[in-house]
């Protein structure tokens, strides 16, 4: 006779099956995380602003108009259209000392900053993954490759970026490469640490015993297990790249001044900051909100995707 208080094997299996069914999916857990919600919505709004820049009442951000110099936010002046006609225009964020519309320059600067941030994250993550997989799986490559990465990390990233931009012609591609290179060692060390742990797992040893090629083990068994930490790391790289691009442009060693970037706008407005603080205030607000949104999104992804941080595994 079975004791009613003693769980049977069938009861245990049913409880485990119910727990598996009730466990929320990764997308549901992401949707329940407030950091992911706030950061994702803010970042999506910035992306929408960047894509719809020509439709948001902007004008040519490089257009000079001496008659509309140093206007305060909300002032109305005249500006020349692409067809050469003078029309009335409301300067929502004022104008700079060259008569350029700050609002248009800030909106178009969103495009540049997001392109730099996303491109740097993709480039540094891709190269860091290749270097990390090779260093962690191929023992003979570990020593020389990591010494190179240690050498890169010994130099401050901003100095590397300034040196590369000074050596090459200042352009969008040059800035992306200059910012991405200092981030590669961080991704490499992250991937290497994960590979060193994963390659000792039983399923990897079983694949080796079956004669599975090394490249298939790296890209088919090990790489998928590094995706979640890499996504989180990529968000931090994106935020750091956006901030570093603004610093380089502010120092005058980034993108050319004719390209509307938040760093260029603040660099040109710092001369008359006491009289016209809006030239620095508005691009600074956009820069701070963008970096904060990406960082909040990264924190939410870390809390959701990292098993050590998740409440339920």
UniProtKB/TrEMBL annotation:
<dbReference type="InterPro" id="IPR000515">
    <property type="entry name" value="MetI-like"/>
</dbReference>
<feature type="transmembrane region" description="Helical">
    <location>
        <begin position="114"/>
        <end position="138"/>
    </location>
</feature>
<dbReference type="Pfam" id="PF00528">
    <property type="entry name" value="BPD_transp_1"/>
</dbReference>
<keyword id="KW-1003">Cell membrane</keyword>
<keyword id="KW-0812">Transmembrane</keyword>
<dbReference type="InterPro" id="IPR035906">
    <property type="entry name" value="MetI-like_sf"/>
</dbReference>
<dbReference type="InterPro" id="IPR050366">
    <property type="entry name" value="BP-dependent_transpt_permease"/>
</dbReference>
<feature type="transmembrane region" description="Helical">
    <location>
        <begin position="276"/>
        <end position="298"/>
    </location>
</feature>
<feature type="domain" description="ABC transmembrane type-1">
    <location>
        <begin position="110"/>
        <end position="298"/>
    </location>
</feature>
<feature type="transmembrane region" description="Helical">
    <location>
        <begin position="34"/>
        <end position="56"/>
    </location>
</feature>
<keyword id="KW-1133">Transmembrane helix</keyword>
<keyword id="KW-0472">Membrane</keyword>
<dbReference type="Pfam" id="PF12911">
    <property type="entry name" value="OppC_N"/>
</dbReference>
<keyword id="KW-0813">Transport</keyword>
<comment type="similarity">
    <text>Belongs to the binding-protein-dependent transport system permease family.</text>
</comment>
<dbReference type="GO" id="GO:0055085">
    <property type="term" value="P:transmembrane transport"/>
</dbReference>
<protein>
    <submittedName>
        <fullName>ABC transporter permease</fullName>
    </submittedName>
</protein>
<feature type="transmembrane region" description="Helical">
    <location>
        <begin position="234"/>
        <end position="255"/>
    </location>
</feature>
<feature type="transmembrane region" description="Helical">
    <location>
        <begin position="158"/>
        <end position="181"/>
    </location>
</feature>
<dbReference type="InterPro" id="IPR025966">
    <property type="entry name" value="OppC_N"/>
</dbReference>
<dbReference type="GO" id="GO:0005886">
    <property type="term" value="C:plasma membrane"/>
</dbReference>
């Amino acid at each position: 006779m079975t004791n009613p208080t003693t769980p049977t094997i069938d009861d245990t299996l049913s409880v485990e099956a119910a727990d598996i069914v009730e466990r929320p999916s990764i997308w549901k857990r992401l949707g329940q995380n407030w950091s992911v919600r706030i950061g994702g919505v803010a970042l999506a709004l910035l992306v929408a602003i960047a894509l719809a820049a020509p439709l948001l009442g902007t004008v040519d951000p490089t257009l000079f108009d001496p008659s509309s110099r140093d206007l305060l936010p909300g002032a109305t002046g005249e500006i020349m259209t692409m067809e050469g006609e003078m029309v009335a225009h409301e300067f929502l964020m004022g104008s700079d000392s060259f008569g350029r519309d700050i609002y248009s320059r800030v909106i178009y600067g969103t495009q540049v900053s997001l392109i730099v941030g996303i491109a740097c994250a993709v480039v540094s993550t891709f190269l860091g993954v290749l270097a990390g997989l090779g260093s962690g799986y191929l023992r003979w490559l570990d020593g020389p490759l990591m010494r190179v990465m240690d050498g890169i990390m010994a130099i401050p990233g901003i100095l590397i970026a300034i040196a590369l931009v000074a050596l090459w012609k200042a352009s969008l591609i040059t800035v992306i490469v200059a910012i991405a290179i200092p981030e590669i060692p961080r991704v490499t060390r992250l991937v290497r640490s994960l590979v060193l742990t994963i390659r000792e797992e039983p399923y990897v040893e079983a694949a080796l015993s079956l004669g599975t090629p090394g490249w298939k083990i790296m890209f088919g068994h090990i790489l998928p297990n590094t995706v979640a930490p890499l996504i989180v790391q990529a968000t931090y790289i994106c935020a750091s790249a956006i901030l570093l691009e603004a610093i380089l442009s502010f120092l005058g060693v980034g993108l050319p001044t004719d390209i509307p970037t938040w760093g260029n706008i603040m660099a040109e407005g710092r001369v008359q900051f006491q009289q016209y603080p809006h030239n620095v205030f508005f691009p600074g607000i956009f820069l701070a909100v963008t970096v904060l949104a990406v960082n909040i999104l990264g924190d939410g992804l870390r809390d959701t995707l990292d098993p050590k941080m998740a409440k339920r595994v």
